[in-house]
Amino acid sequence: MSKELMNKMDIDRALTRMAHEIIEKNKGTEKLCLVGIQRGGVHLAKRLASKIKQIEKKDIPVGSLDIAFYRDDLNIRKEQPVVRRTEVLFEVTDLKIILVDDVLFTGRSIRAALDALIDLGRPASIQLVVLIDRGHRELPIKADYVGKNIPTALSETVEVQLVEEGLEDRVILESPLVPL
Amino acid sequence: MLTKKDLLGIKELSVEEINLILDTAAVFKDVLGRDIKKVPTLRGKTTVNLFFEPSTRTRTSFELAAKRLSTDVINFSVPTSSVVKGESLIDTALTVQALGADFIIIRHSSSGVPHLLAKKLKASVINAGDGTNEHPTQALLDAFTIREKKEKIEGLEIAIVGDIAHSRVAKSNIYCLKKLGAKIRLIGPPTLIPKELERMDIDVFHNMEAGLKDVDVLMMLRIQMERQGRGFFPSTKEYSRNWGLTSERFSLAKDDVIVMHPGPMNRGVEITSEIADGPRSVILEQVTNGLAVRMAVMYLLAGVKR
User: Fold this and answer.
1) Mind listing the domains of chain B with CATH numbers?
2) Which residue in A80, A85, A121 is closest to B300 by CB distance?
3) pLDDT at B18 over 70
4) CA separation for the pair B21, A118 (Å, rounded)
């Protein structure tokens, strides 16, 4: 059974609001950069960068981060994650990194992303943006900016579909047919 | 995804598997360009280098690749091991496995040894050269280098020059590059080119000048000095005169040709220093790429379910 949690407009409004929040909290865009986690996070980071540009008329650098080499579940996954490129073509040391992901769940991907980022340099700070926070954290990790909080059951899955991946913009909650 | 726990040869790999390894290696090459060249991916795993034949570059490359992936590495060198006391090959390998090895990198002078060990062991066995059979990671790093320099492999004219008959590098490269759609030609004396290869849709040239025409990639092989005086060619001098890569001959090749050599080079025999150190040479890049390719192989094998 699947249910639409956000449509195109909802996603766009959430991103616009978060772009404003990022600028407000950081008092402008100085020393700011966006790094998206492959793949959904990368698309969202690019969208946030263009919204920030519309508001502040400033370009901020955008990078993409692959966390496959930093995962803690390589031994227990069914198959090895597909490795994508990490392209952070700017020096992160002393920058304020806005880390972007689509869904925040256990927090383990973010833990891996933090390790990966710190291997690239010594940023001044790292803040976290997620489109969806679905709860069930297994690590002490919290997002600074959240598009939408959605209470979920562990048996459910949340899928963020984006036009960049050839789909329509929407967020879907899939529940198993028979409640577990 | 790779389907087997071992990398024994190119012959056993599909085109998709080869491309997956090359794509993954590109990501590892990025890692090697950073200040921190190490990732925690295979932390807690153990790699054993089991080299029954001398090797500096391949062993060092595997050792560094394993360390960059955060595995612990043991180098098992044969002259100081129990092998000299007469321990059998399988007993040595089982002992190494009992120490907790997850990856066993093996080089041996007999063809087929890695295949035998792969059947006996739970660890991932990686062939680092077996007899005159295969040297798969060398072919993969060569393909990676060609792809990086030429942006494709399909349709390229690739010449392999020298002692094809005794070269596992040549064999792995022929399998690999043919699978990827390149056109292969072999250049060398008739005594060093096996007849059966001529039946594999491969052009054979015994004349270097004729062979160099229209070539995109030139792979020089090492003349194995240990085979001198066995009648394959009269002398290194004569070999060099007929099949050595000199500047005059090199000028017959395409302007954008790249020159490769798996090392170690016999300067002045199969290749002159002028070309080896010249602008068309990618010999040192092959070494760097070897590291990235070996990391990719280990990473992907670690993900194969047993």
Assistant:
1) 15-133+287-302 (3.40.50.1370), 136-282 (3.40.50.1370)
2) A80
3) yes
4) 26
